[in-house]
Specification:
- The protein is α+β, with helices and mostly antiparallel strands.
- The protein is built from twelve helices and 16 strands.
- It has helices at 2-12, 19-40, 87-101, 116-128, 163-183, 188-202, 215-221, 226-239, 313-316, 342-346, 356-365, 382-402; strands spanning 44-46, 53-55, 106-108, 136-143, 150-157, 204-205, 223-224, 244-251, 268-276, 279-283, 309-311, 320-322, 349-351, 374-378, 410-414, 417-423.
- The strands form five sheets. The chain has a five-stranded antiparallel sheet.
- Helix 5 (163-183) crosses helix 6 (188-202) and helix 5 packs across helix 7.
């Protein structure tokens, strides 16, 4: 092990002033080696055909991490999928990660040491769970066709050895300021929301750029697509101490439970999983950065509402679908909580499951004890929302007039989500 060899050199380099001292140092050295052997329990099996040595599995509480500043940008415990690797897989991960940090295009792996399954799992973590590796385009591997043991790891890059460090150096201060500002807030919910909104406001969705898939495109260029938004969110959250990872799957423009979804490349999408107060949520900053469709104007109030911030799986599945095939062999958290959703924390709302009149009346009754500027109804489908929009607005208007309110209710709808927002902020209370 490299760590042991460093320690041995350090002990050997210590000077001795006498033979007695030398004997004592040598005795301590042998004792240290014996203790290390007992602790690490290395076992070597000589390979009959080639005489090479194979290392058996490391104890699970002992593993190797890449010795580079890039890996240390945030705590290793924040690496959701890396934490699920075995000790042997983490050892292999360190080899590949270090090679990428040095812009190597290929590395030969120790012969007959790592299985195809192990290199495949490491490849997944490298490609999917290391948003700080902005230079990496893709990592893949070769295996021996007869033994199915890994032989080579290969890498291609977005940037070369000269341009990559410059991009990283340009990204770090922007990212650092964002994390520093988030740290001033009181709790993880507010810190996450600040990071989420900041990424949205600093980024323009752009599919035309030659390079738009990584976090640096957000922090340096201000343009990206879903993968860049998601990786920027993962990276900033982890640096702010908020567990997060990027999720891949499919997204569909409108929710209609009567339509069978068809998956294709055009539906491919990426978003985030974020943990707040022990519960996991989905957050999609790309979809909260709206684009006009079919000449529709984006409502002025759209930027006030984070419709895809901290959804549970039931809500997410109305418009998104996780690619569970990509996560075979990995453990995903459950996404059931609603306590940290945007609407739960920031706006009163009702999910319409029966008669919307009852749901809206319940919110009207609460106006006596609160002072909200909006009332919100979330319908099962966009079609139902559109058909009831003006009826709900008129119902609220009449009810408030009877209570002595003055002014007009203003309704807002967003074409990509079945939500109706009824603005009463400009009305005068009795």
């Amino acid at each position: 092990m490299h760590t042991c060899s460093v320690l041995w050199k350090k002990h050997i380099a210590c000077p001795a002033q006498s033979k007695g001292m030398l004997r004592r140092i040598f005795g301590c050295f042998l004792a240290a080696m014996l203790f290390a052997c007992i602790l690490l329990q290395p076992a070597f099996a000589e390979e009959a055909s080639s005489g090479m040595l194979q290392v058996e599995a490391l104890p699970e509480n002992l593993y190797v991490v890449p010795d580079c500043d890039t890996f240390r940008m945030y705590p290793a415990s924040m690496r959701y999928f890396w934490m699920q690797l075995t000790a042997r897989e983490k050892e292999l991960f360190a080899l590949v990660y270090t090679a990428i940090d040095n812009y190597q295009t290929r590395i030969s792996l120790p012969r007959n040491t790592y299985t195809e399954e192990e290199i495949a799992r490491v490849r997944f973590v490298i490609n999917e769970d290391c948003p700080e590796l902005i230079q990496l385009r893709l990592c893949w591997y070769d295996c021996d066709s007869s033994t199915r043991m890994a032989t080579t790891a290969r890498m291609s890059y977005n940037y070369d050895r000269q341009w990559g460090p410059q991009r990283f150096a340009a990204m770090k201060p922007v990212l650092g300021r964002l994390v520093e500002q988030a740290a001033q807030l009181e709790n993880d919910f507010d810190r996450e929301l600040f990071i989420y909104k900041s990424i949205i406001f600093m980024t323009e969705y752009n599919t035309e750029s030659r390079q738009n898939q990584s976090a640096d495109c957000v922090f340096v260029d201000g343009i990206s697509v879903c993968a860049g938004y998601a990786d920027a969110m993962t990276l900033a959250c982890r640096m702010a101490g908020i567990p997060s990872f990027t999720i891949s799957g499919y997204a569909y423009l409108l929710y209609d439970p009567n339509v069978v979804r068809e998956w294709n490349e055009d539906n491919s999408h990426a978003w985030n999983a974020v943990q707040i107060n022990g519960n996991w949520y989905f957050a999609d900053s790309t979809w909260d950065d709206p684009l006009p469709l079919e000449n529709q104007e984006i409502p002025a109030t759209r930027s006030e509402y984070m419709l895809y911030f901290n959804l549970n799986e039931a809500e997410l599945n109305k418009t998104h679908e996780i690619d569970y095939n990509a996560y075979r062999g990995w453990t995903l958290p459950t996404f059931e909580a609603i306590e940290a959703s945007f609407f739960s924390r920031k706006l009163p709302y009702s999910v319409v499951e029966g008669d919307w009149h009852d749901e809206l009346q319940a919110q009207i009754d609460l106006l006596a004890t609160g002072n909200p500027s909006h009332l919100v109804l979330i319908f099962p489908t966009v079609q139902q929302r559109d058909s009831q929009r003006y009826s709900a607005s008129n119902f609220l208007q009449d009810a408030l007039v009877q209570l002595g309110w003055k002014g007009r209710v203003v309704s807002s709808t967003f074409f990509d989500y079945p939500i109706l927002i009824l603005d009463i902020g400009n009305m005068t209370r009795p």
